[in-house]
């Protein structure tokens, strides 16, 4: 399956027009970021509504370092490392939070970082950097979009393989375990705090390397390139086909990217008001999130699998009924206006409160 | 308990002067010294000093609220003591986090099943292997040799543990969907997979049907024969008496009796604590 995808993703760019090739590259970069977010949210149950901040950190690291004369390849290697380091430091306080609180803390962190960038001349301020050099070693630079497409999708395949390996392993199981109960995970010997930091840093590294490639490809970075909207888009990509699934994140990134292109074309049709593209994209995000959370909490793929299993003689996979903690938490948030629900799933259980 | 007991916080620890050698001259596996833990000023465990020898099966009995589960949570690290010490294999462990104590192979079976929802029975058991396997994110991501070797070991050890509790047919079932008795067996399988050195069992037989109880007793008998050190909390005095070498009786957070099961169950103070329930307490101490 992976080999097939690898072959297809390497051949496809040869037939794409240059505009579509750009979409294709961005799609790959979002897919890498979304896979990291899916690992964080779906597997380890930690919500991030500010994942785009690590994309931005990666992009800025690559831009600043290469503009100061460092080799672009070295800059691209440092981009995910710095993103991961920032996540590991920020994670110490904020990963103590759970559910909605963690979601808002990550969102706030992104806003803070964007505001710091806007007000720091060294980081280009509000206008950002232009003329970021292309990726390359010495004089040999990656000038064509085709090169970026191959680089991006090579990275995507590597990230998918690595993530799938991780899920089916001792640390992967430990992450799933701590997502359901941190206390129980601790009692079987999982260092919960360290594991949460590690997965947060890893997801940040994925976003960071994608951000690095992004800035070399686009050649431009400003605070406006990494809005909160991008974080929301990533969350939608991750939840739509099933949280915690690597393939789900890939298809989610593809589906949402294509949908946004279509909406953008509709929104910019002659006679449409200027705010139409933004309006349409926000409406689509909102609609998709609500529908998924309320009606397909396990995501579209598991939902379909369940329908398929319900055919006469079918056998239901118990895992397809599983709802990841972040979705359960959002569900309770959406339903909390109803009088009967008193307690959100995201609140700490009594034993956790006691241990604090 | 005096008011000054209440005001002594966790910082007030006695100096580490104790010798690891118990009264009998052999190094006990576990030893608690003047252990205390209060909740809102009320001591659930007031002053518990006890030692458990290697290979021993220790029964812990007492009425509701005697402090049995609190004692276990202090040993496993889920609670920190207000004062007192816990030594394990001669080393002080009361400052260690639960996951660090789990790594020392102190395994606990909780009264209420703490299973990992969304994972299969086999995966739940495999979690037990976390304490003795070592490979991390990096090795797993790249499928390095140690990862492959350990994953094989983890799987075979987990399958073996499932076999021992007779749950092999349910390996692929989702853990949460099991009935209570099987959830308990699953927890036992998980701790077996962790290769424990000290096994804490908090009322493992409660809520089990007669034949389930019997097979649990049989399994514990086997583990004892293999030399595993165990502590067993149980309400069913008959169940404990049949298994334990020594029984410790707790009442209001204090040890009121300790000895062979048939002696202890004849002790007037113990009978009073079980039957007198509250009325005879003032006279006893």
For this structure, the quaternary state is: heterodimer
What is the name of the CATH superfamily of the largest domain in chain B? P-loop containing nucleotide triphosphate hydrolases
Q: Overall pLDDT of chain B, averaged?
A: 86
Strand fraction band of chain B?
15-25%
| Biggest beta sheet summary of chain B | 6 strands, mixed
Q: Can you tell me the residue ranges of chain A where pLDDT is under 50 for at least 5 consecutive residues?
A: 338-356
How many individual domains of chain B?
2
Q: Describe the biggest sheet of chain A? A: 2 strands, antiparallel
Main structural class of chain A = mainly alpha
Cα Rg of chain B = 20 Å
Report the CATH C-level class of the largest domain in chain B.
Answer: Alpha Beta
List the helices and strands and how they pair.
The complex is a heterodimer of chains A (356) and B (285).
Chain A: H1 2-11, H2 18-43, H3 52-67, H4 72-94, H5 99-118, E1 136-137, E2 140-141, H6 145-167, H7 170-180, H8 182-187, H9 192-218, H10 228-240, H11 246-267, H12 276-295, H13 300-309, H14 325-335, H15 350-355
Antiparallel strand pairs in A: 1-2
Chain B: H1 3-7, E1 30-39, E2 42-52, E3 57-61, H2 68-76, E4 83-88, E5 91-92, H3 98-103, E6 106-109, H4 121-127, H5 137-141, H6 145-164, H7 180-193, E7 198-202, H8 210-225, E8 229-233, H9 237-243, E9 246-251, E10 254-259, H10 261-264, H11 268-276, H12 281-284
Parallel strand pairs in B: 3-8, 3-9, 6-7, 7-8
Antiparallel strand pairs in B: 1-2, 1-4, 4-5, 9-10
Helix pairs in contact in B: 4-6, 4-7, 6-7
């Amino acid at each position: 399956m992976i080999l097939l995808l690898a072959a297809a993703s390497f051949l496809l760019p040869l037939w794409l027009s240059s505009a579509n090739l750009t979409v294709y590259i961005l799609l790959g970069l979002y897919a890498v970021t979304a896979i990291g977010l899916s690992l964080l949210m779906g597997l380890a149950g930690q919500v991030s509504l500010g994942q785009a901040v690590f994309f931005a950190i990666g992009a800025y690291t690559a831009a600043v370092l290469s503009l100061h004369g460092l080799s672009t390849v070295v800059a691209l290697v440092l981009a995910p490392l710095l993103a991961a380091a920032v996540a590991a430091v920020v994670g110490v306080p904020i990963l103590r939070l759970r559910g909605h609180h963690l979601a808002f803390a990550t969102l706030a962190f992104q806003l803070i970082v964007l505001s710091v960038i806007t007000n720091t001349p060294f980081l280009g301020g509000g206008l950002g950097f232009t003329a970021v050099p292309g990726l390359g070693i010495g004089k040999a630079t990656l000038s064509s979009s085709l090169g970026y497409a191959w680089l991006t999708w090579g990275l995507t395949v590597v990230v998918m393989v690595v993530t799938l390996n991780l899920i089916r392993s001792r640390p992967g199981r430990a992450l799933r375990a701590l997502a359901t109960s941190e206390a129980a995970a601790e009692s079987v010997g999982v260092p919960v705090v360290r594991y949460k930091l590690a997965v947060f840093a890893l997801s940040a590294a994925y976003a960071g390397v994608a951000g690095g490639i992004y800035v070399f490809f686009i050649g431009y970075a400003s605070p406006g390139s990494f809005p909160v909207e991008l974080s929301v888009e990533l969350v939608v990509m991750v939840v739509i086909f099933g949280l915690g699934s690597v393939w789900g994140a890939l298809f989610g990134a593809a589906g949402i990217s294509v949908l946004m292109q279509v909406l953008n074309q509709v929104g910019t049709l002659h006679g449409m008001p200027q705010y139409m593209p933004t309006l349409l994209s926000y409406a689509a995000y909102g609609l998709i999130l609500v529908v998924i959370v309320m009606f397909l909490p396990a995501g579209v793929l598991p939902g379909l699998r369940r329908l398929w299993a319900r055919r006469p003689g079918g056998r239901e996979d118990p895992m397809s009924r599983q709802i990841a903690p972040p979705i359960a938490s959002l569900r309770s948030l959406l339903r909390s206006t109803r009088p009967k629900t008193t307690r959100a799933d995201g609140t700490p259980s009594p034993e956790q409160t006691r241990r604090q | 308990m005096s008011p000054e007991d209440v005001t002594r916080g966790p910082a007030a620890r006695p100096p580490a002067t104790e010798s690891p050698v118990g009264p009998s001259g052999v190094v006990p596996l576990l030893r608690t010294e003047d252990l205390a833990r209060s909740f809102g000023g009320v001591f659930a465990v007031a002053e518990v000093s006890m030692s458990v020898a290697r290979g021993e099966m220790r029964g812990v009995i007492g009425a509701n609220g005697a402090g049995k589960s609190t004692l276990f949570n202090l040993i496993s690290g889920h609670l920190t003591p207000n004062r007192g010490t816990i030594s394990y294999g001669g080393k002080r462990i009361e400052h260690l986090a639960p996951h660090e104590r789990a790594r020392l192979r102190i395994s606990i079976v909780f009264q209420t099943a703490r299973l990992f929802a969304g994972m299969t029975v086999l995966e739940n058991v495999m979690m037990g292997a976390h304490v003795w396997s070592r490979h991390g994110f990096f090795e797993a991501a790249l499928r390095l040799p140690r990862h492959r070797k350990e994953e094989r070991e983890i799987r075979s050890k987990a399958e073996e543990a499932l076999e021992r509790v007779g749950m092999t047919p349910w390996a692929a079932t989702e853990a949460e969907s099991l009935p209570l008795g099987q959830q308990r067996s699953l927890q036992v399988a998980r701790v077996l997979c962790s290769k424990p050195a000290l096994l804490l069992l908090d009322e493992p037989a409660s809520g089990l049907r007669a034949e389930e109880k019997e097979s649990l007793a049989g399994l514990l008998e086997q583990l004892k024969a293999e030399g595993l050190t165990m502590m067993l909390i149980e309400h069913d005095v008959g169940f404990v008496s049949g298994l334990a070498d020594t029984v410790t009786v707790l009442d209001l957070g204090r040890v009121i009796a300790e000895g062979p099961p048939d002696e202890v169950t004849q002790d007037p103070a113990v009978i009073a604590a079980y039957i007198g329930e509250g009325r005879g307490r003032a006279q006893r101490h």
